[in-house]
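Chapter summary example.
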Amino acid sequence: MKLSIITINYNNCCGLQATIDSVVSQTCQEFEWIIIDGGSSDGSREVIERNVQHFTYWCSESDRGIYNAMNKGIKKATGEYCMFLNSGDCLDGDCLKEVVPQLMGDVIVGRVKSAEDGALSYPYDNSTFSFTQLYSYSFPHQASFIKRDLFIKHGFYDEDYKILSDWKFFLQLLLKERVHIEFISDVVSVIDYNGISKTNKELFVVEKKRLQDEIIPPYLMRDLEYSSSLRDLFNHKIGKKLYSFLYRFFVSKK
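The structure predicted for these 254 residues follows.
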């Protein structure tokens, strides 16, 4: 099996139904589908039972949070690649028909767009991708296809993190394991950006600082802070004037 789609849900029966509708409509059916429900009490279980013929595995039981549920899904998966399409997130059109043939390598990352205004996620590019970009914008898990063997070999999501464990996983893969990341231009999913990482900004700041301390070597942090300072300088009016002067003095006179 090429792909395992893992959907986690908790008390979001309407979002879950929208996700189901988007997956069922795919003409490419080269995937298995795993539903991990956290013991919902809002009718989600009934939604699952009405659509049970579409699922390879499902459960509805209490869990210890988002990443505990995602890890449960990984452990049940048998596909070569895992992707995480949580309740409320929807596949964009008939995207799997175009995306599945491109699944080669360690991690493949597409793009997502906002359900609110259609805005597209950050456009990573194979030829220009840098560590600074990953530190600034994590890959959208709703458009990331991760070889299941990477979880087996390097470990599952760190359940001590509540909102940034997938970011930590990607950082570890790039900094310590040197895996190959491939970017594709396809829009994979339509998502709601109002998740916990947006609504709980204090926790986001705390966990990002923890990521720095645990994962990123001090010399890299110094480089990041230095390059950030330079960007701030040249975005400032004084910096722009300085840049204009230097350009006229050293470049335009050649």
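To summarize the output: The longest strand covers residues 181-191.
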